[in-house]
Amino acid sequence: MTRRAAGAIVALLKETAAAHHEAYIATDGADDEWPLWYASYLVDRLPEVSAFMGTRSELVYWLVRLESEYLETNSEIPWTRFYATRLAAL
Fold it and tell me: How many folded domains does the chain comprise?
């Protein structure tokens, strides 16, 4: 996957985060089930910018896994870049 694709995924993840925050404005974006919401938002949009052709359930799996990996690495890069790099490789 190209840098361009990863950049498009970063933009899509930022859009998703903003939409999620707006949907959960009453709780300032707090949502313990955020992977379900994100997957529903992304499942039809992600294939437009990447090779991902999975189901919503598969996307929930990847979001949960990526969150765990991101937290374990204590990475200083933004979460959107971390997730995009890995999602682009799927």
Answer: 1
